[in-house]
Amino acid sequence: MDDFQHPVPGKLTTAIVICCYSDKRWDILNKAIAAAARQVPTADEIVVVVDHNPPLALRLRAKCFETPVRIVENIHPPGLSGARNTGISVSRGEVILFLDDDAVSDQDLLATLVWQLEDPSVLGAVSAIRPLWETDRPSWFPDEFLWTLGCTYRGLHPGPVRNLIGASMCIRRSVFDHTGGFDSGLGRTAKALPLGCEETELCIRATKALPHGRFVFEPSSGSDHAIPADRATWKYFLHRCWAEGLSKACLSLMAGSGEALASEKTYMTRTLPQGVMRGFADVLLGQPSGLLRAVALGAGLAATAAGFALGRTRAALTRPFTSVPARTLEPVE
């Protein structure tokens, strides 16, 4: 911690937290860390959290990075939420930029998002997250469903948003001081079917606790999010939509349907119908892929709705979904 720069009056101190879990992502992880180290201006600290993979932690500690990087292991339950909570505990910046281990950030990303947080009412900001396809992008894949890949999707507009997207988001430390960390009852793990929406739950909880605050989408800078070949398939697409439905069912029980589904109502009544019309218009213009995109929009919505219905039915037949409380995060030296 000796490399941490002490606060300068008028300057928000910053930390970048990158969570990782798999040796299979070694190459892109190193690119993500290198991009984090090359931010202009530089972050006050960079923390890489390894999620219950000691060999990967040893491998990272043995590597020489161009700037100081602190390698720590997740001290919370396995999963992305626990890893992020560890990063919050061990870092000291007033502003924390969370990056995925497969997201390579623009050089001005941190500065752009911190500039948004100069406004005291802004609790957090998310950048543009662009898909970096390992193979050719499937012609059937609709922009409206890029959220299935953790990327910015069509229909998300600059300005206030209900929640951030985790691959490239910046949050004030004071948010965690007031509300606790990410809920470990949600968040992806390496071994289990992912129950996501942990960022959404946190943002809803934060705006309830800090009603004059807001989260914003700032697309002028961003990150390239790697999309491997096995995620450019119909199987992954439908599976991810179904898992999102399950997650939204859990979230609606935790936060209430009003907050949990507010953005989704607009998405279903405006964004998706416009996408279908756009697909049919492309067909009329001689682009057959437009029909495939229209079909994908319908199939994705159906899979998401099926997952949501299953999640709510399970809760009704068993017992209400109970989350793991996100306790106040104490600093770890």
TrEMBL record:
Gene3D superfamilies hit by this protein: Spore Coat Polysaccharide Biosynthesis Protein SpsA, Chain A
Keyword annotations of the record: Glycosyltransferase, Membrane, Transferase, Transmembrane, Transmembrane helix
InterPro entries the UniProt entry points to: Glyco_trans_2-like, Nucleotide-diphossugar_trans
Membrane spanning stretches: 290-310
Superkingdom assignment: Bacteria
Domain Glycosyltransferase 2-like: 16-177
Similarity remark: Belongs to the glycosyltransferase 2 family.
Name the record gives this protein: Glycosyltransferase family 2 protein
